């Protein structure tokens, strides 16, 4: 954990609030969503609030060897965002232009978010119900969704028990 985080954001159409936007920060070790934020605005605060949540969630974990990777979205290249990464001792990494595989894990998680939650349970009235549903989905993702590549356990269990113990088959899914 805390060696590589990927980040990206997406949009969700609502009935009464127009488009809302949701940003995610994912720890690649176990596909754990460590930060997220929903907003009516695409301003830098959207991505920055998700980053702040991730830093807070991993407080005391030693982020000095962490690389944070994102695409070249303006939110992730903003001075405030890159300064916050530097203040936390996190090494920034941004993708190359036109490389569709560059941030594939973040895009994959967002694709599942939109498939499993947004399209499956929408349409959403506004930001409030979207935000509550996203909170519940992230909790389910981190604590109950099973992932084959990590031994058919949820990300939180994989991190808590350790990769070796889970992969060797000692975990009971």
Give me the secondary-structure topology.
Layout: E1 4-13, E2 19-27, E3 32-39, H1 44-57, E4 67-70, H2 74-77, H3 79-87, E5 91-94, H4 104-121, H5 127-143, H6 155-161, H7 163-170
Parallel strand pairs: 1-4, 4-5
Antiparallel strand pairs: 1-2, 2-3
Protein described:
- The protein has 173 residues and is an alpha/beta fold.
- The chain contains 7 helices and 5 strands.
- The protein has helices at residues 44-57, 74-77, 79-87, 104-121, 127-143, 155-161, 163-170, and strands at 4-13, 19-27, 32-39, 67-70, 91-94.
- The chain has a 5-stranded mixed β-sheet, with helices on both faces.
- A hairpin with a 4-residue loop joins strand 2 (19-27) and strand 3.
Name a few traits of the molecule:
173 residues; alpha/beta; five-stranded mixed beta sheet
Q: In a few lines, what is going on in this structure?
A:
This protein has 173 residues and is an alpha/beta fold. It has helices at 44-57, 74-77, 79-87, 104-121, 127-143, 155-161, 163-170; strands at residues 4-13, 19-27, 32-39, 67-70, 91-94. Strand 1 and strand 2 (19-27) form a beta hairpin.
CA(first)-CA(last) distance: 21 Å
In total, the number of strands is 5
Runs in which pLDDT lies below 50 for 5 or more consecutive residues are none
Q: How much β-strand is present in the residues? A: 15-25%
Largest sheet: 5 strands, mixed
Number of continuous helical runs: 7
The main sheet orders its strands as 3-2-1-4-5
What's the gyration radius in Å? 16 Å
The arrangement of helices and strands along the chain is: EEEHEHHEHHHH
Helix content: 40-55%
Shape: globular
> Based on helices, strands and strand pairing, what is the structural class?
alpha/beta
Quick check: average pLDDT?
Answer: 92
